[in-house]
Fold this sequence. Notes:
The protein is of the alpha/beta class and 316 residues long. It is built from 8 helices and 10 strands. The protein has helices at residues 3-13, 77-84, 103-119, 138-149, 221-230, 258-269, 290-304, 307-315; strands at 28-39, 42-51, 59-64, 89-94, 131-136, 170-174, 206-208, 215-217, 244-249, 274-279. It has a single domain (3-186, 233-315), classed as 3-Layer(aba) Sandwich (Rossmann fold). The longest helix has 17 residues, at 103-119. Helix 7 (290-304) packs antiparallel against helix 8. Strand 7 and strand 8 form a beta hairpin. The strands form 2 sheets. The chain has an 8-stranded mixed beta sheet with strand order 1-2-4-3-5-6-9-10, sandwiched between helices.
Amino acid sequence: MSRPSLLITFVLTCGLFSTTQGADSADFTRREDVIYGRKFGTALTMDIFTPKQKPNGRGIILVVSGGWFSSHDFIPIDYARVFLDRGYTVFAVVHGSQPRYTIPDVLLDMNRAVRFIRFHAKDYDIDPDQIGITGGSAGGHLSLMQGTAGDLGDPKAKDPIDRTSSRVQAVACFYPPTDFLNYGKPGENALGRGILKDFKAPFDFHELDPKSHKFEPITDEEKVLEIGRKISPITHVSEDDPPALIVHGDADKLVPIQQAEIMVSKLKQFGVEAKLIVKPNAAHGWADSTKDVAAFADWFDAHLLPKETGKAAASQ
């Protein structure tokens, strides 16, 4: 897919939110380009937004991703502001972007970002055990992957950050892909194919050849399918997953609403609290998405704040 098309897709998946740049505002401070990790000599960064008034001690990770394309230039300020107004500290995470990096690479970045935030929770005055995550489209997919496949860290890792959990405690997202091997209908393969045929780069899986010492394309179809299962949130659902809210349009042709329906159904089968809000006649992104982000904030209030505080905030 061309860069202009990618940018158009990204704007749609962010729900037409403002991406106005700038440092501090009257109601929040912004720390730009905080390095949370490095890969192949490249810095991985996030921007940290802190409310100036009545911070609630909770953190929300905003996954900056559309089509698995990620850029500091497209951090959606209006999206973040909804949470800032509720007292949340917002971590806008930029991951290694396609076309250079594939989805398995991106998942490593997201795990690293969550570990970094939790490890430095005291520095940001947030509770390390009450972290939410949100995003739209690819950002929604990555949010659900953290919710279902986040882990407790590697106790043998040299870096203490890598020994830290990458689990989150609540998820709220827009129109996420959830099962790439049953995409829109049972058996439909969307690993850069079918509906997602214009998104080949995120699915261009490679592996290191021990003989040539080069990264070679994976051509074995069974290996490709196994990766497809591993990067699908629905594969990882278990009874200890965090509560999840999905908002999805029933006229979405890029990510069929079936993806949200099967995910919510699977979570409920395992006894996990899950909710789907259907936007009638809505396609992949809509202009008044800020209203729906308010529902996300209510969800986080209910699941991350103390019970009485959360109930009071949600009712306001």
